[in-house]
Amino acid sequence: MTPQRNFVQAVAKAITFNLIFLVGFLASCNGDNPSSGDSGSALNAGREYMMWWNASAYDQIWKQATSQFKTTFGSLQNFQAASEQAKEEYGAQTTLKGERVFDMGSIFQYESVAKYANKSDLASFEWQLDSSNDILSLYVRDLPQEAPSAYLDYQTKTKLRLPFDDEWTVMWGGRSTWENYHADTPNQRFAYDFFVVKNGYFSGDGSQNAQHYAFGKTVVAPGSGVVIAAESSVPDNVPGEENFAQPLGNHVIIDHENGEYSVLAHFQRGSVVVQVGDRVVAGQKLGLCGNSGGSDLPHLHYHIQNTPFPLVNGVVDGEGLPTQFTNYFADGTRISRGEPVRGQRVHP
Predict the structure, then answer these.
(1) Measured between alpha carbons, how far is 273 from 109 in angstroms, rounded to an integer?
(2) Could you give the CA distance from residue 280 to residue 17 in angstroms, rounded to a whole number?
(3) Helix (H, G, I), strand (E, B) or coil at 87
(4) Which Pfam family would be a valid example here (predicted)?
(5) How far, in Å, CA of 344 to CA of 331, rounded?
């Protein structure tokens, strides 16, 4: 379940620059690169880089680029060509709507959201910076309108806990498409993607699932109910690849018997330990986090909807419901009932 937006589509044959769950930096975001920067300096650096980009000062950007960034583009000329193509597509920036820095554990991501002359929707330009504020990557993400929902004021009936016991990071979560790329899809309107971060997302070069900290982590039932779907035979993907034919991958769906259905996706192959018809309680083990289905990096996808199955004959079905978890910590603060948002580190 990945946002598909490629900053360099015009030169895709010459440059591979995929947007992968905001972590398209597989060679650099790892446990051997502890962060020594801070959000304030990353904010200032990001503003400067955005200003340079708008002013076509590509040589200045290139001087601040890491070897990874340079390898991605191959040359300053390629980067300039990709940038000019993006400017032709988007047009001039007309209104800055917002900016922020997202602390990803070992690096920072500066994001600038603005209106552009040639686009009806907003767009987010996102600069990934290392601990020295040098540039790891740059990409753009369109921000479509959120899917309409009749459930914006809905209060979750099921008493929910987080679907894990350790600390995880909310990579995608919240009610806007800036916080949550799922939000433009009706049945995933309030969905979550959770990752495990320990000064990065993985050890080594991240090319193997076992190197990712989320892979193999225990996933538990967020609430009590009856299992109505359980799949465990889908192979795990190689990091960077996806299985669009089986978007849920290995998954479990729980009927909470009150009109709410929990969907947990991308389990590790062979790890799901429940079967259809099993009655589960909150906190009961369901399986292990994997990288199956529409997933390009190990993570846990979770959402609640008002119909039993998210796909019926290949067509999206149902509407997503707001998901209020109870009694958890978010960035060290105890939350009695709430909806985690992107960037928060959460645990029971």
Answers:
(1) 37
(2) 42
(3) helix
(4) Peptidase_M23
(5) 6
pLDDT at 7 over 70: no
Residue in this structure with the two tokens 């959770």, named with its chain if needed: 194
What CA–CA distance (Å, rounded) separates 269 from 292? 7
What's the maximum distance between 2 C-alpha atoms anywhere in the chain? Answer: 61
Q: Which residues of 11-26 are buried (b: 16+ CB within 10 A; e: fewer)?
A: beeebebbbbbbbbbb
Digit-coded pLDDT (tens) for 298-321: 999 999 999 998 878 777 789 999
**Has domain 9-143 been given CATH number 3.10.450.50?**
yes
Tell me how far apart the alpha carbons of residues 222 and 284 are, in angstroms, rounded to a whole number.
8
Helix, coil or strand: residue 85: helix
Contacts of 16 (CB under 8 A, 6+ apart): 72
Burial of 180 (0-12, 13-18, 19+ CB in 10 A): buried
Residue 125 burial (CB count, 10 A) = 24
Return the domain boundaries, the chain: 9-143, 168-347
* Residue 185, SS3 per DSSP: coil
Which of 21, 303, 59, 281 lies closest to 187 in space, CA to CA?
303
For domain 168-347, the CATH superfamily is: Glucose Permease (Domain IIA) (2.70.70.10)
CA distance 282 to 289: 17
Rounded CA separation 192/245 (Å):
21
pTM confidence score = 0.83
Q: At a CB cut-off of 8 Å and minimum separation 6, what does 330 contact?
A: 338, 340, 344, 345, 346
Amino acid present at 328: Y
